[in-house]
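User: Here's a chain of 117 residues. Predict its fold as tokens.
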Amino acid sequence: QVHLVESGGGLVQTGGSLRLSCVASGGIFAISDFGWYRQSPGKQRELVASITGSGVTNYADSVKGRLTISRDNVKNTVYLQMNSLKPEDTAVYYCNQVLLSRGVDTWGQGTLVAVSS
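Assistant: Prediction complete.
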């Protein structure tokens, strides 16, 4: 059974940096696709960045050049490096693991990122 645990959120000033981590269990990490999503009050959850099992990445236009997604298949961990943070980046960030061939679509509990102006 797949289980995700996120960490690394917190309060940071505008222009600051954070690194989010998502540790996955379940033995299928290396062949799974992962995404980082975020949701702020009153808004729908949106995809921020994704990375496939082969390492192909994709980013929302609003975060290109500031956020970087990466993965470590030895540590079973996906990272989201967040630089040049803005108040509009404030949200709960969720990690998502997908492996459609095995019916896996799992979410973590979320970690709060708050950027003060």
